[in-house]
């Protein structure tokens, strides 16, 4: 460990020597154009030590000569701002996400609505939409002609479309094109999609292009809000659902998908919730824990579902032709009421990495 002086008060920061060498930004170690390292960790001496440490430019620049003769230079601010504590502080103070129940989302609904014409002609509208999508987990694009082509155009203004077993753009009605309850007119409870995929879609876009009957209202629940409520009420239940893997599968004549993961995925570094995988329809045989632990899992899941089904958390609305909803499939639970008559929905998925990349390019997140 090296003692690095910084700040006007001469504070001291202990930094690992290997970390410093790993973050050398000289032209031999780092390609500034591509932002990529040019060396392997095995190229560092096992007995790496700083032979000489010099402060330059009024103590804003650090120069280190290593025992193998290599010379590294570092901006002091870069070293200080790249530490674990700064990262944790940034996470703690992040205000980009608003966790919501029905009262909160209705109060802020005006931030969710966008028009296709403005979206297509204004980069500022794109940034505002991305900001709302990150903040609340869903947005609505209005004035979209009710067909697949125009729905796709609206989505592609923002993201590339993800190809899955359903194709790129898909349309579903009460005709079983795949062995999935989606292709019915039955009630579908709150869930996330693609729990049987290794990498579930990050976003889903849906557009009701026709409905000549009754019912069919959609509903959304903010997983971040209800999971925090679970953690507050019953920390043990939260722990169970964030550690016990739940198997999911999708089988039909042409496809065989299977994956297991916790219902609530927590980032091991930030401790923030990063993803939900909840789909009671796609669960496989539950054989991943001993029978002696089953009661604890089911009790935890029942309590979580009871919070999800609380009317204060359950935002129900009618999606009509002309409005595309885009929502975060890693964050929100969604579902549909049973319906009568002819009803067709068109839509698509978006990969998580493409969603977050766009948000970063728009300056919404880092």
List keywords for this structure.
11 helices; globular; 21 strands; Trimethyllysine dioxygenase, mitochondrial; 27% helix; six-stranded mixed β-sheet; GBBH-like_N; alpha+beta; iron; 366 residues; EC 1.14.11.8; four-stranded antiparallel β-sheet
Give a structural overview:
This protein has 366 residues and is of the alpha+beta class. It contains eleven helices and 21 strands. The chain has helices spanning 17-22, 76-81, 84-92, 102-107, 116-121, 123-136, 148-156, 223-233, 235-241, 294-308, 352-361; strands at residues 2-6, 11-15, 30-31, 36-37, 50-56, 61-66, 71-75, 113-115, 138-142, 170-172, 188-191, 203-211, 218-222, 245-251, 256-262, 264-266, 273-276, 315-317, 324-328, 332-336, 343-350. The strands form seven sheets. A six-stranded mixed beta sheet has the order 8-9-19-12-21-10. A hairpin with a 4-residue loop joins strand 5 (50-56) and strand 6. Helix 8 (223-233) packs across helix 9 (235-241) and helix 9 crosses helix 10 (294-308). The longest helix has 15 residues, at 294-308. The two termini are 29 Å apart. The model has no long low-confidence stretch (mean pLDDT 93). Residues 111-348 form the TauD/TfdA-like domain. Its EC number is 1.14.11.8. Residues 9-77 form the Gamma-butyrobetaine hydroxylase-like N-terminal domain.
